Amino acid sequence: MANLEAELKGLLLNAVELKNISGWPEALVEDYLNIIENIITVATDVDTTDEDFTNVNQQVSTIDGRIGKLQAIINNLDISSDQITENTQNIINIDNIVNTYSGMINKNTSRINNIINTINDMLQLSSINMESGKNRANINKQQKQINDLEQLLYVG
Length: 156
Hints:
The chain is mostly helical and 156 residues long. It is built from six helices and no strands. It is rod-shaped and about 145 Å long. The two termini are 91 Å apart.
């Protein structure tokens, strides 16, 4: 099958030879030759070689390998309903933990903001007292309150 077209053309007689051998009229010889040429064309179009079959077989093997890999992946994705339930419960537990910590963070943020506001108020009073020359005992008392609040920030 290496070169079917060449083999078929080698068997083909030309019009003069065919007319001499067969005794057919010229129109019949031309029709016959056209039919033979069309047969050669069709045969050439469907001609396949061993190499063509090898290529097709390799492609089929490649596709089979890919199907096998996909099947293995699908098999590994097989998750039981117990696993789905367990994973769902883990997600719910994590969500509860996040909500708990979120509440604690919000509470501490509010507490820190209150302490900062108190410190700012005290600093304002201290500067007013210092400017107006109020007694030193009042300033010492405010300083002690500031120190106490700072300790709350580090401990709380």
